[in-house]
Amino acid sequence: MQSPHIEVIARKSAICSDATVSLDLLVKITPPRPDRPPTRPRLNLALVLDRSGSMAASRKIDYAREAASFAVAQLLTEDLVSITTFDDQVETIAENAPAVDKPGLLRKIALITPRSSTNLHGGWAEGVRQAEAHRIERGLNRVLLLSDGLANVGLTDPNAIALEVKSASLRGVGTTTIGLGDDYNEDLLEAMARAGDGNYYYVESPAMLTDLFQTELLGLMATVGRSVRLAIEPSPGVVVSDVLNDLQRSADGRLMLPNLVAGMPVLVLIRLSVPPQARPGPLCAFLLSWDGPEGGIRFERPASYAAPETMPLEWWAGMPEHAEVVEQEALLMAARAQKEAALAIDRGDIAASRALLKDAARWVNAAPCTFAIAEESRAISSTEAALEMGDYTKTSKRAKYRSYAHGHSRPTPPEPKPPAS
Fold it and tell me: Is residue 417 over pLDDT 80?
């Protein structure tokens, strides 16, 4: 297979000869776009849909049915699919099988109606059971769970649920979670997605569901690498002082990156502390490793960065900075501030949350205006407006989701449009 392109971009293209300095390196990993339509791995998709009573509000169940129908329509006949619903009871309305009888599957989806409470864990566990019943050895096996509420029936402990999700992931079944509206437990759904090597989405408007399902399915179909890891090896004397992304580490200390999706760059920002250097030379080495989309083979690709020149601090301080690195620093520091703002709300400290959102706004407003910076500025303003209106639940969910998306180098959705008057 074609290897991803790895580019290491320094904030400044020099280091100091007479002082220790902080230098940001942007590791830009771009999976290749295929020259021709690829033969994608088979999909084994377990759709798990919340049908609790709250799904009746705002036509949420209608949009959920529409999105599930869209997902089924995109599958090939050699793909596998199951459909599980849950309220206080868990029911599989379509057992795991090839996606051959699509009209029959669509009829079953159309009959889903809201009922009672929310046995989220039970629904997810049944989805895993369905996917594992015919797990595709060299395919993509994924539970896609949608919920608008809190887990209040069955197992509800987030740590215990996350451990089970991690176990399923190690057995080859990943988990993507979708939180709909403002009443679900975002910490639980994010933890499940992290543990399940999947994605987490926050959907404010039910009308966005079909587009989101399309994003997830296209990502699955265009996956070119899984179990992606990045090892960082600084040169002697150089210290990795920070990784600005919010990434977990594997047992051997490597950064755990999202799956490689064709044409979608993964951006990781590393901050180095570099002591005085008498001459130009290497500062840091990297090793990217990943499994192919069908598993079985582990691939590796090295990269490194060497400073092209050294100079006195007085000169270094006035050097131009690379715009893309500055942009990523602003987005990631704003993401950190938004996460802290959400945590402040969770503990009831509204004043601290307000101050942290202002910090986030300052980071993006101080950066050169790009499309991404302008989008983030609008999103932060919208979150601040929700805070001032006293909608603390929406404020927390928005802030956490923006932080998650940027920290994991995932695309952020556009701001939802206000309803037509």
Answer: no
C-alpha Rg value of the chain to the nearest Å:
23
The identity of residue 188, as a single letter, is: L
Q: How many CB atoms lie within 10 A of CB 245?
A: 21
Q: Residue 418's pLDDT is what?
A: 47
Task: Please check whether residue 228 is in contact with residue 260, taking contact to mean a CB–CB distance below 8 angstroms.
Answer: yes
Q: Are 145 and 195 in contact (CB under 8 A)?
A: no
Helices (H), 171-301: 186-195, 209-221
**Which tokens hold the place of 39?**
């033969």
Query: In whole angstroms, what is the distance from residue 252 CA to residue 160 CA?
Result: 24
CA dist 38 and 416 (Å) reads 33
Mean pLDDT of 64-88: 92
The C-alpha atoms of residue 208 and residue 197 are separated, in whole angstroms, by 23
Q: Which residues contact 296 (CB under 8 A, 6 or more apart)?
A: 138
Arithmetic mean of pLDDT, 329-339? 97
Which residue, chain included where needed, has tokens 């994003």?
A: 215
Whether residue 416 has pLDDT greater than 60: no
H helices present in 102-260, as ranges: 102-110, 120-133, 158-170, 186-195, 209-221
Q: What CA–CA distance (Å, rounded) separates 289 from 308?
A: 27
Supply the pTM of this predicted model: 0.86
Q: Which residue has the tokens 């309803």?
A: 419
Which residues does 315 contact at the CB level (< 8 Å), separation at least 6?
none
Mapped onto helix, strand or coil, the DSSP state of residue 370 is coil
CA atoms within 13 A on the CB side of 114: 17
Please provide the CATH number assigned to the domain covering 43-221: 3.40.50.410
Residue ranges of domains in the chain: 5-35+224-316, 43-221, 323-407
Q: pLDDT category, 413, cuts 50, 70, 90?
A: low
- At the topology level, CATH places domain 5-35+224-316 in Immunoglobulin-like (2.60.40)
Scanning the structure block, which residue is given the tokens 């270094």?
Answer: 316
Separation of first and last alpha carbons in the chain: 51
CATH architecture label of 323-407: Up-down Bundle (1.20)
Q: Which residue has the higher pLDDT, 11 or 155?
A: 11
